[in-house]
Design goal:
Layout lengths: L2 E3 L5 E3 H5 L10 H10 L1 E4 L3 E7 L2 H10 L5 E11 L5 E9 L5 E4 L9 E9 L2 E6 L2 E9 L2 E8 L2 E10 L3
Length: 166
């Protein structure tokens, strides 16, 4: 960002002065880039996970469920276990008015809406938390990632996943 110091010592954003119609960077840009890089099918011995950005109609549906007014983007994660007959999916979105929060259609254990906290530790490292649960995503590369699930800080599952094709 191009800035200049004013007489009173505050900083002015020169770009917004000369190009007022350009929207400022989103507070969720790092998260959006993380999930854009993560789109696709991730597989491991335990589970196959499909990650897709939500189309506008599904984004509006989840934002209406949480009464959000400025949804930016959303993600659909679906999974199918290789070791048991179980599958599922989760939809979530972020809103401009709520930095650091993810609004989901379901909780970790039940089919009821939930709000998660998130923190981007770097452009490749995401931590999502709710209640006593914490899930960490670490992109080793655009084709390999580590996922860890913790309950009350105790590691429950560590899983390396690889991305299928392109």
């Amino acid at each position: 960002m191009c800035t200049s110091r004013s007489r009173n010592g505050s900083y002015l954003d020169l770009k917004s002065l000369f190009f007022p119609d350009e929207s400022p960077e989103s507070i969720h840009d790092n998260l959006h880039q993380f999930w854009r890089r993560s789109e696709g099918i991730w597989f491991s011995k335990l589970v196959n996970v499909t990650v897709r950005l939500l189309p506008q109609t599904e984004l509006l549906a989840i934002s209406q469920r949480h009464l959000l007014e400025q949804p930016e983007f959303g993600v659909r994660m679906s999974w199918e276990y290789n070791t048991k007959q179980q599958s599922g999916q989760m939809f979530w979105c972020v809103d401009t008015a709520y930095p650091g929060l993810i609004f989901a259609d379901r909780s970790m254990l039940e089919n009821i809406p939930q709000i998660f906290d998130y923190q981007m530790l770097s452009d490749r490292h995401l931590v999502i938390t709710a209640d006593k649960f914490s899930e960490t995503f670490l992109l080793d590369s655009d084709r390999r990632r580590l996922r860890e699930l913790r309950v009350e800080g105790k590691l429950i599952r560590r899983l390396w996943e690889n991305k299928f094709g392109d």
